[in-house]
Amino acid sequence: MRVLGIDPGYAIVGWGVVEYAGNRFAPVDFGAVTTAAGLPFEARLREVYDGVCEVIHRTRPEVLAIEKLFYQHNQTTVIGVAEARGVILLAAAQAGLPVYEYTPMQVKQAVTGYGKAVKKQVQEMTRILLHLPAVPKPDDTADALAMAITFCHTSANQLTRLTARGVGPI
């Protein structure tokens, strides 16, 4: 199964595609969609949308795993991230991808086995699981790969069983 993990944002959208088969992970591709701070916000959203659409078209994932929106102290930031998530979810819907959302704690638990792991522990375990020579940069990319791993650890078997029964995505 090919999974696209996304760490949403409007300045940087980390993305990572992981192939998962037989309890083994293989990185397919990863990177980041970046937008210039000087652009009008709607232009930044358009760049996020276009970038994610291009990644979906090029890598052909079967499912999208994305970070669930959580409250941040800066309301302006949370609103901007929510709007970026919206265009990312639109791109997934247009491509017919089922979407799975995970909290940061769920990602930490799935990747490291400890829900209160620090970011560096999650990134290092992501590197180890994917047999990468170094932790991917920017951090958003490593976070996106961890999101894809989380889907594989928590939801892939359930999706496979439902699809085999003809039920379709959750």
Automatic annotation (TrEMBL):
GO molecular function: crossover junction DNA endonuclease activity; DNA binding; magnesium ion binding
PROSITE patterns to which the protein is assigned, alphabetical: RUVC
Binding residues annotated for Mg(2+) 1, in chain numbering: 7, 140
Active site: 7, 67, 140
Keyword vocabulary terms for this entry: Cytoplasm, DNA damage, DNA recombination, DNA repair, DNA-binding, Endonuclease, Hydrolase, Magnesium, Metal-binding, Nuclease
Quaternary organization: Homodimer which binds Holliday junction (HJ) DNA. The HJ becomes 2-fold symmetrical on binding to RuvC with unstacked arms; it has a different conformation from HJ DNA in complex with RuvA. In the full resolvosome a probable DNA-RuvA(4)-RuvB(12)-RuvC(2) complex forms which resolves the HJ.
The protein, known as: Crossover junction endodeoxyribonuclease RuvC
Species per Swiss-Prot/TrEMBL record: Candidatus Faecalibacterium intestinigallinarum
